[in-house]
Amino acid sequence: MNVHGSANFVRPRRRVYSRRVSEIIFLLIFRFLLISGFAEPPTPSEVERAHDLARFSDLRCGSCHKPTDVQALWLKDNAAPRLDGLGGRVNPDWTQRYLASPSTVFPGTTMPDLLHGLESARREADAAALTHYLYATNRSTWAPVAPDHAAVKRGERLYQSIGCMACHPLNAKGREGEVAFPRLVEKWTLPGLQAFLLNPLITRPGGRMPSMGLRSDEAFDLAHYLLRETRHFSPLEVAIYRERLRSLEELDTAEPVRTLPGADFSLKVPGNDGRLEFRWSGWMPMASGGSYTFFVKAVGAARLAVDGHWIEDEEAWEKEATEASATLHLTPGEHQVQVDFVQRGQEPPSLEISWEGAGIPRQPLPVASFRADNRIGPESPAVAFEVDPALVERGRELYGSLHCGTCHERADGTFAPGLGHLSPEKGCLSSTPPVGTPNYHFPDVERNGMRRMLAWLSPTELSQPPASQRLMGGLSGFRCLVCHERDGVGGIARDRDAYFTSAGEDLGEEGRVPPRLDGIGDKLRPEWLADVLDGSARVRPYLRTRMPHFGTDQVGFIAALLIELDRHPGAMPAVNDSLDAQRDAGRRLVGVDGLSCIACHRFNRQPAHALQVLDLTTTGKRLNPDWFHRFLKDPNRYNPGTRMPAFWPDGVSPLKEVLAGDTDRQMTAIWGYLNDGEQAKFPEGLSRQGVELVVGGEAVVYRGKLWEAGFRAITVGFPGGINLAFDAEELRLSLLWRGRFLNAGPHWTVQGMGQIHPLGSDVIVFPKGSAWAVLPDLNSAWPTNAPRELGIRMAGYQLDAARQPTFQYRWGGLEVADALNGFEVEGQKGLRRHLRLSGAIPVGLCLRLAQGNLEALGENRWRLNQMLTIQTEGHISPVVRGRGAQQQLLLPISGSGEWKVNYVW
Amino acid sequence: MNLVFLCTLAAISVGFSSSGAERARQNLNTDDLPPMEANDRESEYYRIVTLSTPPEAVIEAGSLLELPDGRIAVGTRRGEIYFVTGLESDPPQPRWKLFANGLTEVFGLAWRDGILYATQQAELTRVLDTDGDGRADRFETVSDAWAWGGEHEFTFGSGFDRDGAIWTVHGLTDSYTSDRLFRGWALRHFPDGRWEPMASGLRSPGGVGFNAAGDVFYLESQGPWGSACTLKHLRKGAFMGHPISNKWWDKAPGFGPRPPEPEGTEESRRYTESKRIPQLVLPSVTFPYKRMGQSASGLMLDVSEGRFGPFAGQFFVGDYTLSLVMRAEMEVVDGEYQGTCYPFRQGFATGLIGGTLTPQGHVLVGGSKRGWPVRGLSPNALQRLDWTGKIPFEVLTTRVQTNGFEFRFTLPVDAATASDVHSYSFETFTHHYYGAYGGPEIEQATHVVRSAWVSPDGHSVRLIVDELIPGHIHELHLSGVRDRLGHPLLHDVAYYTLNRLPNVSPK
After folding, report:
1. Which of A45, A396, B254, B433 has the fewest other C-beta atoms within 10 Å?
2. Which chain A residues have a beta carbon less than 8 Å from that of B138?
3. Which letter, b or e, does each residue of B96-120 get, where b requires 16 or more Cβ atoms within 10 Å of its Cβ?
4. pLDDT tier for residue B15 given thresholds of 50, 70 and 90
5. Out of B54, B121, B138, whose CB is closest to A796?
């Protein structure tokens, strides 16, 4: 079957039928004008209704005005930002101005003005008092942080690629429907914004600003990007590089890893990671013109440019610094200065930049008078905020009397009438709200719209919203539809389209556009849907946009509604094949001797041959089996434009020799096989190009140098994530760990004997030296001789049907068969060891099972270092000797026989 | 340069690649590899065919062996063993079957009585498929008589010798030390687990095998105590030249007293030291550094009886760094092997590690380029060298005479050019014998060819020269010699390593 040929693939057609977000928003505004007018508008669609009602959630009307149970179903809860910890995040100066007049400082804010109607001095005083109260417990010394231009560049790429731009403005202009920012540089501290971006749900539990799953370095970059207009003065800016640069010229094209403010040309730059590759830049003011001679003296490679005229010092590898100079005629005014330095050789590097001329004897450049950036206006002022206890007290009173806590702490709002009993002409909706009442400064058009919607919400006969309406409320409230399309609604806006990109090659639209939500509740299993909304499930690493995390409390209902609306369980064909027969046939079909699914699909983290699309081992946990069956029959119906070919055209199997060519049996077999997930046995032809050794349905044995297990380590990964290393030189179990197995890269790249560590976690390290000894009595010291000196030697190993090893070794006439198996009982995973001894058993033979802190748990069970439980079965009980962290768990052995040892975390 | 500096460099550059000290400083920079002189004529006679490998795998062949049923066993750097069919069909139709995996750098394969033996870094292992499903499931330790615990301690293994034993050769810990038992030694092992030490003094072997008579040879890398790669004859009790591994001499039963220490001064020469150190074995063939190869790896005996061309019974030798195959042939003079190397075929795709020459007459070579500088551009490759059936005009053999050399050619020569002394030039040189890393060619001398006599059948030429110098490499150029159609030799240079002169007195 030719799956690479393009003839089978249908190019996805442009979604001309779907209405783009901008168009929808235009229509909504139009509608809003309609409903605010006199004419009774036509019955709105669900998306329009959802948008109309969204205003009630945005403005948090329900915090003060408790909705009835039925009303609550039409409205979305939306918690206000938490105000604790404000001092570390937000500039107090901004807070105070904002409180004094929210919609002036942040046009479009959803916070009402609570100090309106007061004379301006009183207003300022109250805003100050509230600010002192809010900052009382965590004082703030807000100061501008110089934008790191390297981080700004990376942050811009993130902003444009991971999805920020889907909701927020693309440029300073902005447009309707975007979530506008306040003036970020005036509001945020850099560390505060970085922390906020890492997990917005902590301070904004409403989930409207979701977590984007940023790493802390990404949050750093993004924060620098968002605060890039911060004005901060320093004489110089120094760029630091992290790639090994060979020449000064490479600095022209290399991307710096950081930029920092600099005060001089010192080679001691904080955070430079030991590398000495720098570029300083700044502007030099010249009061009077004239001829000046500039000198560059360095051990290393260095050069200086004034207005782009380079003076390059020859590279100095040796101890003696070399010097270059040039004389330039400079006019009065500012001149751009740039200095580059790259370390050379082993000698301690040095750099001196100096000048002379027009009455100036030779001296260092007057860097103190430089400016790193000659284009910026006055510096953002630092704010030293001292808390005034008297104002704090006054602020506390105001906070209470203005009912701030009703929104910000979700305090009970019984002081105000319920949403069902509101007069549309009074309070907030009055054209002149009384003093002390929240004032949203509604334009008339919007106020009328609110009144009309309030009237619509009020009737006692208000019916429950249908599920589809509630779903639309969720999808539009959390802006799911700016990325996803469902039932022809939503999808990527035209001006955002170019920003949805793919990290994979050749994956087409499927590789860059977030998946459609049509029928998604029918497709995905409930648990998986919940995980997706929780942000913990990601299966499309090639999509550069990230599925945000809104918080399960906020969006959990969406999963339930999707299932309620979409799910149409279909019958599965009756198939008589046993599960094992299904697994075998499914494995054949998925592999290169079958349909070669692994040509395009990854399998258990192993790369596919061609494309790198969804990992097949996620199939069982993601998909409903009946949907999978229907999908295989007609992929294009469920995912229009997909590159996945129909492998059973007209329901006819191309492979007659598997399960008699029966389509239903084959599809069921594929399901049965893939449903084993990561414990599915690898299909034929699965890539081994990668260097991570992944364990599937069979144990994996790998020999070679491994950390504590030595050069002769035989490392075994068992299905289910239990791993061990056996030292074939010392004939001992040396390591146990859980989770991922190994990365063979250090052996399989470069020369080949790099250090390999266990990839997983909970690593148990057993003591070095012989695990076997003959002790005259149980008080005798454990021998320190190398096992080879004692005569204990490896004989080999045998793999069973699941490819689990039995190690065999000898000590004189004694033969040991040491079988190791992963096991899982009642959810507990561990290792079972089955020792069989035969031949000449010396008197006093002992096996050291463990050494460390041992806690007796009874029934031949011990807890090692509070991590691992070791249990023995057999006719002889182990003994514990020693004390503290050096206790030994010994198994005395007399006569041939069998012993079993279980190791469980 | 002081010794500490050399050691530091050596620690970086040792191993089967044995790149030079100056290379180590460049790390992986391949810029200073000697330029490849285009020799387009080679492909008229020997054609390189690239063999497809399974798309899911990375095949870095470290050892190759043809099994009695015609399948090829391939052992890899990644520790896998494959059985492959269809490698020798035309066009090749390889079908790869993974037999075993999870081993450590399989640099030797042997087969006896239907059982595969694999030389891994830590042990010689019998690899068995007990349930007949085509995948190995039993791994028996045949011998682990040597210790392994250094990052550059590479081990290569042979097939079975005439006594039914497998030879293993063990690189030093680094260029200068033997930190673990039998590093720098050759051992041999019997299937029943018996084993015996055979020779000391190895540095960084790149392969071990047998000549047509069943004698054992290994490839040695240049470095300390050897300024060029060499082919050396292994036998019991021998000292191959690098003295550090003699520390284990007492562990070798029947070896007698430990050899005297080589002096290792600027004045020291291996030939003169061999008079003082009776166990010291001189190289049978020397591959002048860079002019022939830089890191010999992959020893292949032509067992094809003519199916690979006119060189039956001769050795072919791969080179890791230069991605080429050289040719070597020897004679026994005064009881010792000595002989000649010739350029043969360049232009392989990657660094060559493993190779075999099959009875059907194909050279199969493979490897990878990771870790050390390599001229070939592919990260890894498996390639086949096919004889096109056209006989190249080459020096077939070079034999030392009491007063010169006798060349035998693959095709009859043109008597006029071949009997003209100006068609030849003749130089000699030798190397230091000391512990510095690598070393120059020294005591170069240009000699006079006095006369050249063409045999009546036109296949041989006897060259009378002014002087033969034991202990020196005799570099013979035959640039003026033509065949009867007027063609020059495909390769017109021969390097004869002369340790012994033919016995002039009648037996």
Report:
1. B254
2. 796-799
3. bebbbbbbbbbbbbbbeeeebbbbb
4. very low
5. B138
A348/A8 Cα distance (integer angstroms): 64
User: CB–CB of A701 and B77 under 8 A?
Assistant: no
Q: Could you tell me if A863 lies within 8 Å of chain B, comparing CB atoms? A: no
In which domain, by residue range, is B491 found? 395-498
Residues B136, B206: one domain?
Answer: yes
B131: chain A residues, CB-CB within 8 Å: 801
pLDDT digits (tens, 9 = 90+) for A96-136: 999 999 999 999 899 999 999 999 999 999 999 999 999 98
User: B157 CA to chain A: closest CA distance, Å?
Assistant: 18
Strand B238-239 relative to strand B195-200: parallel, antiparallel, unpaired? parallel
Residue A535, pLDDT score: 79
Q: A559-600, pLDDT tens digit by residue?
A: 999 999 999 999 889 999 999 999 999 999 999 889 999 999
Residue of B nearest to A705 (CA): B149
Whether residue A301 is found in the same domain as residue A425: no
- Taking the Cβ of residue A701 and every Cβ of chain B, the question of whether any pair is shorter than 8 Å is answered with yes
- Considering only CB atoms, which chain B residues are within 8 Å of A702? 79, 102
What does the DSSP assignment read for B385-430? EEE-SPPP--EEEEEEETTEEEEEESSPBPHHHHT-GGG-EEEEEE
Q: Which residue of B has its CA nearest to A700?
A: B102
Query: pTM for this one?
Result: 0.77
Q: Is residue B16 left, alpha or beta, with left meaning phi > 0 and alpha meaning psi from -120 to 50? A: alpha
| Dihedral sign, Cα of residue B66, residue B70, residue B76, residue B80 | negative
B174 and B197 fall within a common domain: yes
Are residues B55 and A685, on separate chains, in Cβ contact within 8 Å?
yes
Q: Which residues of B touch A794 (CB under 8 A)?
A: 123, 141, 144
Task: Round to whole Å and give the CA distance between A14 and A425.
Answer: 48
Among chain B residues, the shortest Cα distance to A796 is held by B140
Q: Do A701 and B102 touch (CB under 8 A)?
A: yes
A201 inside domain: yes
DSSP collapsed to 3 states, B447-486 = ECEEEEEECCCCCEEEEEECCCCCCEEEEEECCCCEECCC
Same domain? For A208 and A319 the reply is no
State whether A851 and A898 are in the same domain: yes
On whether both B86 and B192 belong to a single domain, the answer is: yes
Span A839-873, pLDDT tens digits:
999 999 999 999 999 999 988 999 999 999 999 98
DSSP B158-208: EEE-TTS-EEEEE--SSSS---STTTT-EEEE-TTS-EEEEEE---SEEEE
Domain membership flag for residue B505? no
Task: For residue B407, report the phi and psi dihedrals to the nearest 5 degrees.
Answer: -95, 140
Mean pLDDT on B135-151: 95
Q: Which of A78, A85, A37, A73 is nearest to A57 (CA)?
A: A78
Q: How many domains does chain B have?
A: 2
B contacts of A609 (beta carbons < 8 Å): 55-56
- A796 and B149 in contact by Cβ < 8 A? no
* A160-206 per-position pLDDT tens digit: 999 999 999 998 777 888 899 999 999 999 999 999 999 999 999 99
Out of B56, B103, B126, whose CB is closest to A703?
B103
Do A512 and A556 lie in a common domain?
yes
Does the structure show a pLDDT above 80 at B488?
yes
Judge: A744–B78 Cβ closer than 8 Å, yes or no: yes
Instruction: For residues A708 and A842, state if they share a domain.
Output: yes
